[in-house]
Amino acid sequence: MRDDLDVLIVGAGLAGIGAAHQLQSAFPGLDYAILESRDALGGTWDLFRYPGVRSDSDMFTMAYRFRPWPGAQSFAGGPAIRDYVRATAEDAGIDRRIRYRHRVLSASWSSDEARWTVLAEHDGEQVRLTAKFLHLCAGYYHYEQPHAPEFPGVERFAGTVVHPQHWPEDLDHAGKRVVVIGSGATAITLVPAMADDAAHVTMLQRSPSYVVSVPGQDPLLAHLRGRLGERATYALVRWKNILYSAGSYRLSRAFPKWMSKAIRKAAAERLPAGYDVDTHFNPSYDPWDQRMCLAPDGDLFDALSSGRASVVTDHVEEFTETGIRLRSGAELDADIVITATGLRLRPFGGITFTVDSREVAPSETTVYKGAMLSGIPNLAFTFGYTNHSWTLKADLVGEFVVRLLRQMRRNGHDRCVPVKANRGAQPMIENFTSHYVQRGIDAFPRSDVKAPWRVKMDYFHDLLVLRHLPVGDRDLRFSRSQSHAMPSASLSNVDE
Description:
Blueprint lengths: L3 E7 L3 H13 L5 E4 L8 H4 L11 H4 L15 H15 L5 E2 L2 E9 L4 E8 L2 E12 L23 E3 L14 E5 L3 H11 L4 E6 L5 E4 L4 H6 L5 H25 L1 H15 L6 H4 L12 E4 L2 H8 L2 E5 L2 E4 L3 E4 L4 E3 L2 E4 L12 E4 L2 E3 L6 E2 L3 E2 L5 E3 L8 H22 L3 E4 L7 E2 L7 H6 L5 E2 L11 H10 L7 E4 L17
Helix pairs in contact: 1-4, 1-11, 5-10, 7-8, 11-13
């Protein structure tokens, strides 16, 4: 495996494998590699192993555009998603391009050489690689360190405290009293998954989230399967879900009070008569100010209705030897406490960037077309949607990178860089109030108010910009290094 590459991809998760598939399909002769910090591919879907872990987007938009989702379930479990990503890599030979246990430390660009020099740590030693183009698919959160607030008195607790990001394989919750602290997607998934075996599961939340019951299997898929071919069925269901998701989001933003009442009413209909919906399922924020929590086939509501689980809306005052004392004075007895308290954001895997000997922090840059960074040459990154499936954006960015490299090939360029005079005026993710985002967004690149520098959580906007409009404009500068003779393996000479 060469250490002087055409393209280097960082991250072997859903986005990284998809990017590699698109690259080698477009350029069969391309020299590329994937650096993965962990010892297995799959990213998020290999890291998280807690009970019931599953997608929070439907699999017909979460799966790749080029590879239909093979299952019938709209919301698949983590192992099924991991198997899907692995099969995609193995079938295309991408798995042979992955270098595991390579954590990227730094990336330095030289305009004279028209190359990146990348330093990675592998089994305690530093490894040096060079590449003409860098595609970052390392996700957006810290894999080793989740957000873990310090709860008073936790050292006194005689039971087990677990964070979902570091789930122990030998944890047995059967017959145990479980308290899940949190109200996000992880907590909404954990509670019904553990309720069948636990003595009781309590979801302890400081404030409610929107929870929407959705069908576990897509009705259109059930109707079309066997009548059309696999790809035609997949395309129809995928587009139906894209349109439905986009329409629901826009309706929520246009009529937030109406949508809030509709979601609350739907929750009340799934819960026993007299249930205190206003306390436990009536958020103070508008729909889609935070990502919506989905309950396939209403599994959370069923667990609450059966009495196997309950919701408590209160604050942790302190841990005791036998459980948690709440601010209200009430106490929750527990054998196991799960702190589903969220993620810790980390841009681009914590890589340090240098451009011509000058260090460039991501927060100093502005996002170009949702895929590149101002002032940093020959670099693309994947950051998905907060209101759609992550992979919808990943697929588009992969296509854009192929189009960009193809244009460089045609014109003999070895350098492209978005140029912007000023730093962006607003956060990369605007109007999104989730606590984990607010805690760490200042370390991320910025957005601005006008195209092509505004980050829009809009699939149809990106579909036009990344797939159909011309690659270049006045803000994307192309050039060829004057002092560097381009070798035969250059991006301008790879096979198509």
